[in-house]
Amino acid sequence: MGTTVNSQTEDEIRKINEQVISQFFALRLISKHSVVKVFSFRFPWLWLEPIWYLSGFQSEFNRLVKLTNDFTRKVIADRKRRMDDTEFIDEKEMHSNRKKLAFLDLLLHMQRSNELSDEDIREEVDTFMFEGHDTTSSGIGFTVWWLGQSPECQKKVHEELDSVFGDSDRLPTSEDLKRLVYLEKCIKESLRLTPSVPLVARKLTSDVVIGETTLPDGLTVVVVPSTTARDDRYWEKPKEFYPEHFDAEKVSLRNPYAYIPFSAGPRNCIGQKFAVLEEKTVLSWIFRRYYVESEERYPGNQPSPELVLTPSNGVRVRLTKR
After folding, report:
1. Residue 148: domain span
2. What is the pLDDT of residues 230-260, one digit of tens each?
3. Choice among 8-12, 187-191, 272-276 with the minimum mean pLDDT
4. C or N terminus of the chain, fewer CB within 10 Å?
5. Considering the domain boundaries, does residue 71 fall inside one?
6. Lowest mean pLDDT among 112-116, 157-161, 300-304
7. Is the bond preceding 151 in cis, omega lying within 30 degrees of 0?
């Protein structure tokens, strides 16, 4: 976004941490409120708008949404102010290969051409700032948990990291991340067994026939990615953590819709490649330094199906310095 949060500097850390913590809990609570509203099969009376409002859920939901939206608006306003204080980038520079603009700068440039409103920009910034927050942390947590109970797989991860980084303590480069092939297989296998987003909803734009059943145009269909991800027609060891499921030759023979943790089609996850890079970066830092052992193993610590999948008892692991 072209905005530095400065969460690591001593002068700013208290103020920034308060913002980050408030945003984190706001997003988690918004998620919980959404689950209550959409999936309240045990409390169907909450589907009735008057009861929903009288319950207090709506006012609390609105307050939390305002908190997150205000944070985004502040980021946009601060960036606008800094851009106004300097010479605004011209058209030639924007299209030059010598300079890549931050995403927010591109949106603000489009606004100056009267193509986007403030709210249009806020919605796009919200997508990038918040959509990958809980989902990526869920993916990282579950990968740590799965590797913590799979010592042979973790040994291969350590060997791969040692071959790429050796004894160096440097930060990973983009080329380093490309070489972490086995770690990426582990991330994908974790997402197969415990997808960050447990449910995906789609509205049909035409009739769909499945067997002898016709799903009519306009129907909302809920897709559960973990169903095909544990189907023994597509997976050699469907209930086990087995990163070799993602060997290139096996992937080429598999129906691509058997694995959809990022959804599929024209409305799939816009940030899926970035999410995997984030996870590889964080996980490489952890496993370069530590051996991980899970305190509670599968099938214990069952995932809790909120809007974002979370382990019911948290990610409880023991870290041992390598």
Report:
1. 133-321
2. 999 999 999 999 999 999 999 999 999 999 9
3. 8-12
4. C
5. no
6. 112-116
7. no
Tell me whether residue 269 is annotated as binding: yes
281 located within any domain: yes
What DSSP state is assigned to residue 205? S
| CATH at residue 304 | 1.10.630.10
pLDDT digit string (tens) for 23-55? 444 455 445 545 545 555 556 676 777 877 787
Q: What is the domain count for the chain?
A: 1
Q: How many residues comprise the chain?
A: 322
Number of H helices, E strands in the chain: 13, 8
Alpha-carbon gap, residue 34 to 46, rounded angstroms: 12
Q: Are 293 and 123 within 8 A, CB to CB?
A: no
Report the distance separating Cα 16 and Cα 9, nearest Å: 10
Judge whether 45 lies within some domain: no
State the Cα–Cα distance between residues 259 and 264, nearest whole angstrom: 9
